[in-house]
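Good morning,

Attaching, inline, the backbone tokens for the sequence recovery test we're adding to the shared suite. The designed sequence is right after.
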């Protein structure tokens, strides 16, 4: 019974210490130091990254020069920008 208790303590420590490290979300600045801009190879930027559910993509861009909008599938397909207040 003592051996079983020892194994349970070791497994508990393993789960408490290692599991959170594998489930922590990562924040990515799209384009790294270049940010969200024109004439940038974002496919090359994303190539060696492993995105997971819960990760955050941050779009840093010069206000007034670029915009990022959240759109639904039909707005994306028709390239329609939402109007303010919708």
């Amino acid at each position: 019974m003592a051996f079983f208790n020892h194994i349970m303590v070791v497994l508990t420590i393993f789960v408490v210490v290692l599991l959170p490290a594998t489930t922590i979300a990562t924040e990515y600045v799209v384009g790294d130091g270049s940010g969200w801009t024109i004439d940038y190879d974002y496919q090359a930027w994303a190539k060696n990254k492993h995105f997971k559910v819960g990760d955050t993509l941050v779009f840093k861009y010069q206000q007034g020069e670029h915009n990022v909008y959240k759109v639904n599938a039909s707005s994306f397909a028709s390239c329609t920008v939402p109007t303010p207040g919708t």
